[in-house]
Amino acid sequence: MLYFYLMNTIKVAEAAFPTEYGDFRIYGFESEDKSDSAVALVKGNPAGSDAPLVRIHSQCLTGDAFGSSRCDCGPQLQMAQKAIADEGCGILIYQLQEGRGIGLMNKLMAYELQDAGHDTVSANHQLGFEADHRNYALSANILRHFGVHRIRLMSNNPLKLQALEEAGITIAERVPIEIAPTDDTQRYLLTKKAKLGHLLSTL
Asked: Considering 55, 100, 134, 152, which one is annotated as catalytic?
């Protein structure tokens, strides 16, 4: 993962965004060189909060859109959006970094390797990638765009907290976002706990 932050982030769009969880505003952001982009759902006035609730969620087409039970991504996204809506203030940043940053087609190849016996980490390594290939630079700049420098972060991933701290974002609190394991996700979650250090109390 890369911990530095981008100096130039551009807001490209903003609109009202009603959802089943209530009304948000949706924003589109790009890095200046257009190498990275992200979406932010914003509820209330996060800059007016001492430490607003924030979720940085990496794109998972298979889980978020198709309801895959190979991972816990879809339920995490729904949990985060509902929690921010219930609180009445917060930011959900949706990073377009599929498969922990390796891209959709590589992620599907990693699935194929997992079917052959690899776990989610060794499959990435077999394809020539880091276990976690994400970059939180744009997300840190998006938080700064909204005047937010101190947050309560919904995450189980200590490396995400470290990356944001190194980018100048203070983590006032880590808020767990755990989904109870199922037969389909048990091995995946155990691998994330054992090899990536994810903080999972239900395993």
From this structure: 134
pLDDT tens-place string over residues 52-69: 999 999 999 999 999 999
> For residues 144 and 63, what is the distance between their CA atoms, to the nearest angstrom?
29
Query: Looking at 115, 132, 150, 184, which residue is catalytic?
Result: 132
Looking at the structure of the chain, the number of domains it has is: 1
Residue identified by tokens 């701290």 is 165
Concerning whether 70 is annotated as a catalytic residue, the answer is no
Decide if 57 is inside a domain: yes
Question: How many helices (H) does the chain have, and how many strands (E)?
Answer: 7, 7
pLDDT digit string, tens, across residues 133-166: 888 989 999 999 999 999 999 999 999 999 999 9
Question: Is 122 inside any structural domain?
Answer: no
Q: Which domain holds residue 149?
A: 9-97+134-196
User: Is 86 labeled as catalytic in the residue annotation?
Assistant: no
